[in-house]
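_Full entry_
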Amino acid sequence: MLHRIRNRDFRGWVHPGLNCDLSRPFSSEFHQKINASGESVLHCRGRDIYRVPLEFEGREVNCFLYFFRNTSLSRAFRQSPARSIMKISEKIRGSGFPSIEVLAAIRPTGELLNWNSLLIVREIPNVRELPARGNHVYRVHEEVEFSRAVADRTAEELARFHDAGFYHGDLKSRHILVSGPQDSPSRITFVDLEKAAFIRFLPFFYRDLLAARDLVQMLSSLPEPEQDAPLENRKTEFLSTYLSRRKAGEFRLSITRKAVGLYLDKGSLRQGETVLQAIIRGLKQRFAGKE
C-alpha cells in the first residue's frame, strides 16, 4: 500500500517498504548519484530512465526510475505521468492482470503545473521482451523469440486485456514481457503504461478502433527475421488467435479486422500512421486501382 507524503522536496505516494534517500529527487545531484549507483537505460527529451538497486522491504531489488519532463504547456496541465501510471497499474493489477509494482510516484512540491515527476517501479524478475524495431528501441531485458507459442499466449492475453476495457495506447513489441519457457510461456505483462487507459462506456466502435491501434503498433514494431518462416505468417496467426479469443460479435470483430487491414500494404504493416492517414491511403489506393 502506497502512503501519501508531502514535504519540502516532493509530494506524492511512496511505499513504506522503500528505503531510499529521496531528498531533492529532481536535482542534478540526485541524477548523478543515481547514475553512479546504477545504469542509465534511456536519456531523451521527455524522460530519463535508470536501473538502480534499491533496498525494499529489507532486501536489495532492482528498480527502474523514470524521470518524466513535460515539454509543452498543454501537457503540464494534465495529470503527471508518474501518477497516471501508478493509477492505471493499480487498476490493472486489481482486475487480475500482471502489471508493474509502483514503489513511488512523486513530483516537486513547489511546482503548480505538472512539469516534472518521478516514478519508481520494481523490476519484474525473470522476464524477456519481444524483439522490436523502429525509433527509440532500447534493450532492457533479454530477447525472446516470437514463436507460435509466444504469439498465441500474447494474443490470448491481449484479447482478455481489451475485453476487460484496458487499452495500452503505445503497445510496441518491446513493451511486452514474457515469463516462463519459450515453448510454454506462463505470463504476459504489458509495461510502459504512460498512455494506457481503462474505457468501458464509450461506443464499441471507438473502443474497437483503440484495440486495432494496439494491434497495429504491436505488429508493426516486430522486426523481420533473418531466416525461418516469414514473419507475416506469424502476424496473421497472431491476429487470428486474437480475434478468436475476443468476446465480441462477428460485426465488432469485422470492424477490428478491417481497421487493422487499413494498415496493410503489400503484406507489410506501416508504423506511425494514424487511423485517419490509413483511411486516406486506403481510399487513394482503391480509387487508383479503378483508373
About this structure: The chain has a mean pLDDT of 87. The chain is about 35% helix and 25% strand. The first strand starts at residue 3 and ends at 6. Residues 3-122 form a domain with the Phosphorylase Kinase; domain 1 fold (CATH 3.30.200).
